[in-house]
């Protein structure tokens, strides 16, 4: 049964824990973040350390030095004979496989952590959980995927426990993982600060097809508000063919901004537009916008109806551009104080850290 034990109030009288935090091997954890998963890892590690816990982050090379990331094993150059194998998967797949395989083999021979928290999207930390001497908690950040689903089917429940970033995501996994604790991703309320608002609406995040920025642009034009976009462009072809032709006039691409500049941009906007074309597992940009006091207009898809309420956002039917245009107009009339309050009460880092610390302790009992 899906549960929600993630309430504030961790027992600070308990001794600190040693936590191994498994992150993405593909992208470094540094600002400006490659995506929400990297931002989440940074916030979780920082929040845990602020509580006095010892945190070892296992991640990609080139991460923020202040995070003290222990880089995962890097794949040596493959032999020419191996590369001639016609069944060889893409280079990034092999590199990630080597990184997580090496990490899990190292962890299986040591007992340096009280608990290992897997925040990656890779299957090996789940498949090899039973080889570790310490309990492994995996946070499910996505809908079911073939590789991860396969690993979970073979995973012994005595060696692993699971959290999900939203009730929506927990329901998607419930046929395979019947006991999941819901822990919403948190944002640091002292870093995502309220702004004055009133300016041109903003869309921010990874510019990739599943985020639907082109629909947000069309909706903003229909609403007559214009739109400012910000974020990385990992899919160059998508940006070139779907976004660039729509730029100009009242629609501007601001670039991949630093945290400071992004907070200022989001806080200056009357509305944040969120336009997922997939079942968004959580939507960290929603929480970040609310923390800036910026109401949200978005598609009622994935976890968005769960994160927002009637005082902090307006939702349209999925892929309904005309409906999203109306939502932008209506969201601009909502209270910025109510938006900030929603972030404070539902998606703060403190609440998230409390919930995970409770799960860490429960996994060891």
Task: Write a structural description.
It is a single chain. This protein has 365 residues and is of the alpha/beta class. The chain has two domains: 18-186 and 349-364, Rossmann fold (3-Layer(aba) Sandwich), CATH 3.40.50.2000; 202-346, Rossmann fold (3-Layer(aba) Sandwich), CATH 3.40.50.2000. Helix content is 37%, strand content 14%. It contains 14 helices and 13 strands. The chain has helices at 36-50, 80-83, 91-108, 124-127, 146-153, 167-173, 213-223, 236-243, 259-268, 284-291, 304-307, 321-331, 336-346, 349-364; strands at 18-22, 54-59, 69-71, 115-118, 136-140, 160-164, 181-182, 202-204, 227-230, 251-253, 272-274, 296-299, 313-316. The strands form three sheets. A seven-stranded parallel beta sheet has the order 3-2-1-4-5-6-7. A three-stranded parallel beta sheet has the order 8-9-10, with helices on both faces. Strands 11-12-13 form a three-stranded parallel beta sheet, sandwiched between helices. Helix 1 packs across helix 14 and helix 10 (284-291) packs across helix 13. The longest helix has 18 residues, at 91-108. The radius of gyration is 21 Å and the shape is globular. Residues 1-10 have low confidence and may be disordered.
């Amino acid at each position: 049964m899906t549960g929600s034990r993630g309430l504030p109030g961790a027992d600070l009288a308990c001794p600190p824990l040693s936590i191994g935090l498994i992150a993405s091997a593909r992208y470094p954890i540094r600002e400006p973040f490659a995506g929400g998963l990297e931002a989440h890892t940074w916030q979780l590690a920082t929040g845990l350390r602020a509580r006095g816990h010892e945190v070892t982050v296992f991640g990609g090379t080139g991460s923020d030095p202040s995070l003290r990331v222990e880089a995962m094993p890097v794949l040596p150059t493959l032999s020419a004979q191996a590369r001639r194998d016609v069944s060889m998967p893409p280079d990034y797949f092999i590199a990630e496989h080597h990184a997580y395989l090496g990490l899990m083999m190292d962890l299986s021979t040591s007992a340096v952590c009280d608990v290992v928290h897997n925040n990656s999207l890779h299957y090996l930390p789940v498949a090899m959980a039973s080889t570790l001497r310490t309990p492994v908690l995996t946070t499910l950040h996505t809908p079911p995927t073939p590789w991860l689903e396969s690993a979970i089917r073979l995973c012994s429940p005595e060696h692993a426990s699971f959290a999900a970033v939203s009730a929506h995501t927990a329901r998607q996994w419930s046929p395979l993982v019947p006991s999941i604790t819901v822990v919403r991703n948190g944002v640091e309320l002292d870093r995502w600060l309220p702004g004055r608002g009133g300016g041109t609406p903003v869309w921010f995040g990874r510019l990739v097809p599943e985020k639907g920025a082109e629909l947000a642009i069309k909706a903003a034009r229909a609403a007559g508000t214009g739109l400012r976009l910000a974020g990385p462009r990992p899919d160059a072809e998508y940006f070139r063919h779907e976004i660039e032709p729509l730029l100009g006039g009242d629609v501007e691409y601001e670039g991949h901004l630093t945290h400071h500049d992004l907070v200022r941009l989001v806080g200056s906007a009357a509305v944040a537009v969120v336009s997922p074309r997939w079942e968004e597992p959580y939507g960290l940009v929603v929480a970040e916008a609310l923390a800036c006091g910026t109401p949200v207009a978005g598609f009622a898809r994935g976890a968005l109806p769960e994160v927002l309420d009637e005082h902090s956002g307006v939702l349209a039917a999925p892929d309904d551009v005309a409906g999203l245009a109306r939502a932008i107009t209506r969201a601009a009339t909502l209270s910025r104080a109510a938006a900030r309050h929603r972030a404070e009460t539902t998606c703060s880092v403190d609440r998230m850290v409390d919930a995970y610390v409770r799960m860490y302790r429960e996994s060891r009992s």
